[in-house]
Amino acid sequence: MNAVKIKDDVFWVGVNDYQTTLFEGLWPIDQEGISYNAYLINDEKVAIIDTVKSIKQDEYIEKIKSIIGDKKVDYLVMNHMEPDHSSGIEELLSVYPDMIIVGNKKTFPMLKNFYNIEGNVLEVGEGDTLSLGKHTLQFFMTPMVHWPESMVTYDTTDKILFSMDIFGSYKAPVGSIFDDENDLASFEDPIRRYYATIVGKVAGQAMKALDKLCGIEIGTICPSHGLVWRSNPGHILDRYVKMSRKETVPGVVIAYGSMYGCTQKSAETLAIALKDNGVKEVVLYDVSKTDISFIVSDIWKYKGLLMGAPAYYGKIFPKMANLLYKLTEIKVDNHKVGFFTDFSWSGGAEKNFNAFIEEAKVDVISDMVMVKGRPDENDVLALNELAKKMAEEMAN
User: What are the Flavodoxin-like domain coordinates in residue numbering (predicted)?
Assistant: First the structure.
């Protein structure tokens, strides 16, 4: 896409990335890609909000020049120093060497550490303003959403919030950047998966930031990833508030690992029993086949969680250990949780599950079901009882 006008003097100069397969080297983005949104205000003073990932810097600079021609860039506002938003800065400085870099006191040490840039900076703090002429920018600090230097920028003239990673999403918009020109339903899962993997760990800090931002009049939300919300900014604001509060809907995620099908049999038994007990939404995930970002996304959505894994040399199946690590990080409070294991001779998975229960402070609904080998009749009865208890929790 070319540069896109958002308001008379405000433009999107971002890029879509279909080359990167793992966002942060972790989370699959593959065919849907991701956008790195950057913005330009063409006023008496020219200000750019953020750069883009360096692999796309030429396209980014071309868009800037298509708007301002031979004018200089006066300010570069760095809302966030993560390299997907900052690594284009070196090339941008080579084109506009007199540009002043605007950030907060935690921005500039990172600027030096990443790019060895120290001079020509302007430090701003909570509520500070910067006049561009017609437009005035105001800055709000949002520490640990999701890095310590994170902040957002508000255009008081056009009521535009440049919200950094807040209100972001996986999935690059195709053909148009605007909410009213896209199928919002197709962004629901990418929004939640982005929140769960990127922001979920700091949900408490995110809620504080949202409380702060609710105090200003917002006409348009321009995040660093995903759609620009010009027609219904309340939609994404409402979504983020609910996710930050960890609001869930009735339904159960069953996440399991299985080497030879025994734990899988237990998981399938639970799924059937949950349905028989009236649970309409049941999602079954094999942790060996599905990236944990998709599993965590649905865990963020649904109230119930059942996890099962076999022992693996006296410990837990490694793919389940990876999921437990992420869930310990983001927390699964406000969930009802149950566990089942499988072993051949000495067990071990239950130790890791118990450590997770202790560290994550999860709300466990029943004793762990421990199966030796393939589930027998008594094991099936125990699994059915676990499913029944979970169904009762979903009905409450």
Answer: 252-391
